[in-house]
């Protein structure tokens, strides 16, 4: 099934019919360069999906490294092209067969038949199994054990293939991860890279070796702990920073660990040479499974950190690509990328999540427990595969991470889809696709025997003929170093200190600082490649030079009861060259410095220093400069405060006038709302009373109009009667008829008069109604006028802002630092000259 390029991972699931369709789900492997997260509870089918993913990578010839903490991934070696019962029989769980009341042979036959049918249902069979068997080499590695192919971790201390110059930041991060893992393995508890003496010492030992292109064996490391190849750590002598007695105890701790029989297996076997782990000598791909179920927690953390650090180093020697070069899969990452804690594995995995895409390395991270993953850290993941979850907490946590990583996701729709997932049904959110999709996973080519134990690993490797590869110089893509990591090879060997001192006037001995002055080191926070880019410099790095300058920083406090003000600000100035006469301090202002961290920075090892200029050794002159610096802060340090007296509001220090007026408008609107509410209440009562009068008037009009209608009817009837009597009297010649007509005429006149009076009353009532309606209109207009007046009043109040200048008292100005700062510069070889470019942030 599928095509030549895409992964065939299953079939589309129809939510309306509630079943899997026959339409295949195909996935572009290049999408894995943006990484993937796979999660689902036990029984969701997560393991089967992940194994299918790795099978597809193998079928496409894509190498992979898999970390197997539970033993599930060992099933990747159980592919049987002939699908014979005898193939399955050695891997059938006897206890499972017994529980079902079957012999192992019967269950093997049933399993073989079931696997054959399952594969056939998905268009798979012998052809794909044969291809899987021949496409890649499979090997199960067992670090810390000889049951599989053992791993020699000593190679992790070797000097990396990428040059030190231009990659200092990357390699220092690698060192920090390795040292943290090593110290955790031997039982050191305080391993903060910025506070732990042990961590700082060993990190400096590795850095000293690597920066000189030297490999440091573990035995060498133990000896150098006792006798470091440098005299100082930071500003202190090594013995002052880490006394010899304490170093001897650390050395003994490391030596005991190395000498223990259980550690000897860590010193033999395949080195962590990622090129050899991913590819055979002829360049064909390999799938390497690192089984770590037998290791302790500290051993697991140590090995995982070492492995990912080695992968990262290898990755940076490769050319950039948009296709999937290699897959790195972690079957259960819980504890290695947590949302709160910071184990050594977390740092290197985070870096790879951010940077591996450029090198075509795809990370796949799987877990049963979404709450134990740092989804903010996984914001770079482009594919999320989600199976049935155990709790609502898991679902909500995962939805948070998914909506954060894949913007534009309809949380409600995804929530609904997740709530209805069944076994082997997954929601796939791919940022490269238009919308999330539900799929049913395909049948695995490999037999899913469940987690295998360490005792089964030898037979498993024998099944595929796996063994430790012969050590040889593996092809390394012609040493393809990325553009970011490609200074000239000669840059790997830094200029000797003696040569640098002789040719440029620099010295390896840091010049003394006048007594009483502070002395700090600005860290080299800018990588060489970035510094060269900013300075438009070209050429290899040939050293790191520290130049002295004057750094001054003070704190100004502002106190005012009338303005309820208790605030402070810091002012820092950096003067790099001598200034004749009075210093215009505002010309040298830099961003505020973290004095505590700055003072914690130590003098770098093997650095070169520029000479101390005379003006920075003149104590009298420096004393005058410090006084002048404080006086300048007093003279020019007035703080402008914005206030609104009517609203009794004061702006926070540094708040712009526009922002303060906006705040005043909000406050004024709140006050105005109270007055508007009162107007509403006052007019509501008047409006209600007037409405009541209008309703009564409407009833009066209706009553008067009814009376008018009755009068007019009587008038008409009476008139008709009179006319009739007259006609009868005339025609009959009877006087009585004529008399009656005369009497009726008089009555008709009365009826007419009464109708006119009723009509007059109706007209009067309507006039009264018109007057009431006019009162209503006037009432509405008055209300609107009153409200407009209130709004206008408070709008003007909000704009009524005053500015007040508050000067600090001299006693409220405190100098935090005044002294020498050593500024790091990279040395770039430009012909016969050396050019210095800043390695620090201003």
Describe the structure in your own words.
This protein is of the alpha/beta class. Among the domains are: 84-119, no CATH class; 494-638 and 810-838, no CATH class; 657-802, Orthogonal Bundle (Helix Hairpins). It is 43% helix and 18% strand. It has 22 helices and 25 strands. A hairpin with a 4-residue loop joins strand 17 (541-560) and strand 18. The chain is flat and about 155 Å long.
Distance N terminus to C terminus? 59 Å
Outline, from the CA principal axes? Answer: flat
Strand numbers in spatial order across the main sheet: 2-1-15-14-13-3-12-11-4-10-5
What's the total count of β strands?
A: 25
Q: How much is the average pLDDT?
A: 83
How is the main sheet built? 11 strands, mixed
Whole-angstrom Rg? 44 Å
The number of helical segments is 22
Class computed from helices, strands and strand pairing: alpha/beta
- Multimeric organization: single chain
Taken as a percent bin, the fraction of beta residues is: 15-25%
The helix content is: 40-55%
Regions with little confidence, pLDDT below 50 for 5+ residues: 471-503
Region (Disordered): 474-509
Keywords: Coiled coil
Coiled coil: 755-789
Biased composition (Low complexity): 477-503
